Amino acid sequence: MGIEPAGPPSRGDRRLAPAATHGTRRAADPPGRAPAQSRAAHSAPPRRSVGRAVEQRPFRDTALRLPGRLRRGVPAAPLRGFASQHPQASVEVVCAPTPRLLEQIDRHALDLALISLAEGSDEAVIRREPLVWVGCPGPGAADFAPLPLALSQPDTLDHLAACNALRALGREYRIAYASSSLAGLIALVRSGQAVAVLTQTAVPADLQILAGDAALPELPSVGIALRFGQGQPTPLVDALAEHIRQLLPSL
C-alpha cells in the first residue's frame, strides 16, 4: 500500500503504500479558494477514502485522532479499525507488487508501504510468511510436464522462489500465466491449468496446498516489513505504522 503526492511532495501531501508480494494524496487548493487550514473551522471533516476496507477490532492507541490524507501500499486487513480511530483521515490504498511499491517510494509517491522481504534481510520484520505451492484439489497441473506455473511478475519473490527451487531440483517448468493480479492467478489455478506460489495465509479454502510432493521442492518464507517514504514521517503516517505493527502479527 502506498501514499502518493498530487504535486511536489510535502509532508501533508504524501501517500502510504501493501505483497504477494499493495497511499494518500492531498489535492491542491483551487484558485481563489482559501487554504485548507483556514477553512477547517467552517467546513465538514474531509471525506474518508479507504480502499478495500475491512472491519477489525479497534487499535488500542486512542490518543491520536489526526486529520490529513495518506497514500499507502498496504492490504486492507492491517487497516482494520484505523478509520474509526482517525475519522478525519483520508487514506488511499495502492495495491502492487513490492518492486512497484519501492519504485513509488523512490519517486516520493508513497508515504508508507508494506513490503515483502527475502530471507536473510536485515530490515525489521513484523511477520514472516511461508511460501507454498497451490493447486486445485485432485489430479491436476502439478502432474504435468513441464510444470505450468501461474506467478506474479518476474522480479517478485514468489516468482523468483518458484523458478530457483525448480531449477535446483532439475524439474522443467513453463510460465503459463504471469500477472500482478492475485485474482487472476487464483482463477487459473482453480481451472486446473497451473500451479501457483502464494503465502500460506493467502490460499483460498477451495484450493489445496501441495505439501509433501517430492516433485515440488520446499520454498522459502518471506518477511513482511514497513518501508517509509523519504523525509520525516507525519504524525498520521506514524500512527498508521504503529497500528499495523500492533495488528499484523495476530492476523
Helix content: 10-25%
Series of secondary-structure elements, N-terminal to C-terminal: HEHEHEEEHEHEEEH
Strand segment count: 9
According to CATH, the homologous superfamily of the largest domain is Periplasmic binding protein-like II
- CATH structural fold name of the largest domain: D-Maltodextrin-Binding Protein, domain 2
Number of helices: 6
Count of domain modules? 2
What's the CATH architecture of the largest domain? 3-Layer(aba) Sandwich
Question: Segments where pLDDT lies below 50 for 5+ residues?
Answer: 1-73
Radius of gyration: 20 Å
Question: How would you summarize this macromolecular structure in one to three sentences?
Answer:
With 251 residues, the protein is of the alpha/beta class. The chain contains six helices and nine strands. The radius of gyration is 20 Å and the shape is elongated.
